[in-house]
């Protein structure tokens, strides 16, 4: 099924607000963050759509929001769909989809670790890449890089400085 046809089929099955977005990175389905679990449940459980696999979940800081992407695939129908929602940087909270897609567990933990998004209902929302005592979330645009951590000097070396424009 073509992606636009997937959108139209989904639109006919729900009253939730859906938006079809086409940009340089390809077509995507934009939804409200509070509708995330409902929309992904419909996409997974509807036999005509059958998105049985969450292949990726990631995010990006796009001031003043954090955009969360969910890449879904149907092994039965061999089609793919990217779904996204936006949460405010000041309160980045969305419901977890771990109950729907078990593979979201570590993906949501990575997004929490690097972007600071809190996934309500996640069974173990702890850091997965950085130490527990790390301060901040390094993929946010407002992140302040530490100069030193546990005796490791993170300041730019003289060689690195020589490659930077003056």
TrEMBL record:
UniProt xrefs under Gene3D superfamilies: NADH:ubiquinone oxidoreductase, 30kDa subunit (3.30.460.80)
A GO MF label: NADH dehydrogenase (ubiquinone) activity
Segments forming domain NADH:ubiquinone oxidoreductase 30kDa subunit: 30-145
InterPro entries to which the protein is assigned, alphabetical: NADH_quin_OxRdtase_su_C/D-like (IPR037232), NADH_UbQ_OxRdtase_30kDa_su (IPR001268)
Protein family per UniProt: Belongs to the complex I 30 kDa subunit family.
Protein name, entry field: NADH:ubiquinone oxidoreductase 30kDa subunit domain-containing protein
Lineage: Bacteria, Pseudomonadati, Pseudomonadota, Candidatus Lambdaproteobacteria
């Amino acid at each position: 099924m073509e992606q636009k046809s997937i959108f139209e089929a989904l639109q006919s099955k729900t009253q939730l607000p859906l938006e079809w977005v086409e940009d340089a990175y390809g077509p995507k389905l934009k939804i409200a963050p509070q509708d995330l679990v409902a929309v992904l449940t419909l996409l997974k459980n509807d036999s005509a759509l059958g998105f049985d696999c969450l292949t990726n979940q990631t995010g990006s800081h796009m001031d003043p929001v954090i955009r969360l992407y969910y890449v879904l695939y149907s092994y039965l129908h061999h089609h793919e769909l990217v779904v996204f929602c936006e949460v405010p940087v000041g309160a980045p909270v969305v419901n977890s989809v771990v109950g729907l897609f078990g593979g979201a567990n570590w993906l949501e933990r990575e997004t929490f670790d690097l972007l600071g998004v809190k996934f309500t209902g996640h069974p173990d929302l702890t850091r997965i890449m950085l130490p527990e005592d790390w301060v901040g979330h390094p993929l946010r645009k407002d992140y302040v890089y530490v100069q030193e951590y546990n005796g490791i000097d993170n300041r730019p070396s003289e060689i690195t400085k020589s490659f930077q424009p003056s």
